[in-house]
């Protein structure tokens, strides 16, 4: 039954416009960043080749941010919320479907679609490399190994973990908004921390950084432009530990989401303490911003 | 045979939705008639394994509905009072998915079943259209098709005709009338005609209790010779309500006609009427002092 649910999930998402819209936007963003110096995506350098492994890895790591924020939130919250939002849960709940097949068939479908969005975005960079107007002096050889590394070592774990987090938050709060805000907050914290890096604390920050960028840029901190055009970061030291931590968190989030999801009609209406907490946060934030405005 | 014994349910807000409900329902169409808020949907959802009761038991043959939900779901068809669907997914695809979840794993068997159902509910010509674009009547017919997957032994249809126009309702009645005699079908409704058109057995529910049960012909017979009707001016209604046991008033050609309950001929221009299910319904609600707001 798992396989059938997974297949239906793929077909369902393929029929919805969302994947095409987000893919197109991220594709254009990355394409633009590759073919024009006017668009730059956090941390890429202009004194090295446009398509140097370093730049490609940075852009793809950032792509995993955006994929998580847009595709991740939309898709990974879907297993927990969709049937209640569409008021169709009662029918599903009276069939023979088991919670495991129901939730994970859908979650796996959601992950595939997050990954499709990521691939579309990555294709934007790839295609950009072949545009005729790019200054040939700043174009190195095509480095598919850099794409490969950024995808399996950086983007894939990042997207998986963020999707698992969205899945958990959506399950706990029954709210799409809460999932979006949580991820958004993480991205803000990440970019603030990333810009304030103090070499003293590099180890701690490397481990805390959910996207692995701190460790990665620390590895390349003293690289010469020549190295940046040539080398790919090794998966060792802080970066390796960071990735392992990410995988642990991913599994924990997923298992917790499964644990907290109640496969019953109460799921939508139950006022859990998490939901109350989220509503409280929203309320106090509103109060705070009102005070600032006055 | 469905045996319900002393089923009670009080919601956390103090509303007593079910109060010692006991019913024995055999194969065939059973009508559960009651005003909105009578507890019908709570009973339906409890029998459909979606809610738990506080007390009591319910058995379908020897399946313990309250404690062995999985077994009941093997033989259950349920049409919820309201349900939504996914956007841009065709009726056929949706039915196919439900068939999978109801355990029909053979693809060609599924295809055959769905073709048959789509014909049966007269939606064959729109099988490739998304259910979200269907009219109210078409959607309800889709709902019954979904509920019929897998030859259920217990079919629960909750307020299926609410909001349908007369032609759609007639079609829906024909559809229900064709359902096999060897299935326990429970039809909950607040529309008297649904029961008088379709059901061989019935109960009237109000305030969470069963107020009356029996065969429609028999319960109507009890009121033989005690229903009288008269055309009056609209402003006299209150006057009559004080002096007579008024069951209900209707408009006939713009004039108000009241129906009253009386052991002897009240004279005063009243004429004797033969009772129908509507008289029984209103007489029962009146006996138990249950107000209905129409």
Class of secondary structure makeup of chain B: alpha/beta
Count of all domains of chain B: 2
CATH topology of the largest domain in chain B: Rossmann fold
Would you state the CATH class of the largest domain in chain B?
A: Alpha Beta
Radius of gyration of chain B: 21 Å
> How much strand of chain A?
under 5%
Question: What is the H/E string of chain B?
Answer: EEEHEEHEHHHEHEHEEHEHEEEH
In total, how many domains does the architecture of chain A comprise? 1
Please estimate the helix content of chain B: 25-40%
Oligomeric status: heterodimer
How does the major sheet of chain A shape up? none
CATH architecture of the largest domain in chain B: 3-Layer(aba) Sandwich
**Weakly predicted, low-confidence segments of chain A:** none
The count of DSSP E runs of length 2 or more, i.e. the number of strands of chain B, is 14
Q: Numbering strands along the chain, what is their spatial order in the largest sheet of chain B?
A: 6-7-8-3-9-10
């Amino acid at each position: 039954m798992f396989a059938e649910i997974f297949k239906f999930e793929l077909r369902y998402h393929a029929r919805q416009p969302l994947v095409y819209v987000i893919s197109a936007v991220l594709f254009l963003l990355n394409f633009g960043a590759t073919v024009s110096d006017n668009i730059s995506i956090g941390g890429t350098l202009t004194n090295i080749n446009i398509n140097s492994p370093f730049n490609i890895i940075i852009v793809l790591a950032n792509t995993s941010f955006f994929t998580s924020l847009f595709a991740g939130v939309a898709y990974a919250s879907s297993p927990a919320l969709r049937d209640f939002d569409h008021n169709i849960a009662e029918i599903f709940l009276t069939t023979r479907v088991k919670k495991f097949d129901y939730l994970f068939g859908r979650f796996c479908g959601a992950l595939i679609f997050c990954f499709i969005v990521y691939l579309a975005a990555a294709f934007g960079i790839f295609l950009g490399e072949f545009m005729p107007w790019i200054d040939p002096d700043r174009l190195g050889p095509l480095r598919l190994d850099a794409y490969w590394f950024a995808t399996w070592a950086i983007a894939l774990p990042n997207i998986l973990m963020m999707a698992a987090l969205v899945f958990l938050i959506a399950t706990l709060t029954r709210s799409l908004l809460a999932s979006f805000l949580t991820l958004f907050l993480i991205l803000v914290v990440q970019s603030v921390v990333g810009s304030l890096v103090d070499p003293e604390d590099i180890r701690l920050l490397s481990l805390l950084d959910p996207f692995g960028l701190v460790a990665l840029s620390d590895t390349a901190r003293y690289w010469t432009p020549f190295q940046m055009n040539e080398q790919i970061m090794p998966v060792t030291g802080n970066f390796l530990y960071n990735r392992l931590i990410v995988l642990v968190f991913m599994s924990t989030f997923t298992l917790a989401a499964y644990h907290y999801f109640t496969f019953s009609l109460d799921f939508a209406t139950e006022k859990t303490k998490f939901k109350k907490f989220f509503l409280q946060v929203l309320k106090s934030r509103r109060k705070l911003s009102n005070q600032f405005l006055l | 045979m469905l045996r319900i014994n002393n089923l009670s349910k009080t919601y956390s807000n103090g509303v007593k939705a079910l109060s010692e409900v006991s019913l024995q329902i055999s194969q065939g169409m059973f009508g559960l008639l009651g005003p909105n808020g009578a507890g019908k949907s709570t009973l339906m959802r409890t029998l459909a394994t979606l809610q738990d009761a506080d007390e009591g038991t319910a058995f379908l043959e020897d399946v313990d509905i309250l404690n062995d939900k999985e077994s009941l779901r093997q033989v259950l068809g349920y049409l919820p009072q309201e349900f939504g669907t996914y956007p841009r997914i065709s009726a056929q695809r949706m039915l196919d998915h439900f068939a999978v979840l109801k355990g029909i794993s053979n693809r060609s068997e599924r295809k055959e079943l769905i073709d048959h159902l789509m014909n049966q509910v007269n939606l064959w010509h729109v099988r490739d259209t998304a259910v979200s674009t269907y009219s109210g009547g078409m959607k309800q017919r889709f709902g019954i098709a979904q509920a019929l997957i897998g030859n259920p032994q217990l079919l629960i249809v909750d307020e299926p005709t609410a909001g349908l126009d007369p032609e759609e309702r007639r079609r829906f009645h024909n559809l229900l009338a064709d359902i096999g005699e060897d299935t326990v079908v429970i039809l909950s409704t607040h529309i008297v005609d649904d029961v008088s058109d379709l059901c061989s057995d019935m109960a009237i529910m109000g305030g969470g209790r069963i107020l009356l049960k029996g065969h429609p012909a028999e319960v109507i017979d009890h009121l033989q010779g005690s229903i009288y009707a008269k055309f009056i001016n609209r402003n006299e209604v209150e006057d009559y309500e004080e002096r007579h046991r008024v069951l209900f008033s209707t408009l006939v050609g713009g004039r108000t006609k009241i129906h009253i309950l009386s052991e002897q001929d009240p004279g005063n221009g009243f004429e004797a009427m033969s009772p129908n299910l509507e008289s029984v319904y209103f007489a029962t609600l009146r006996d138990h002092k249950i107000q209905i707001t129409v």
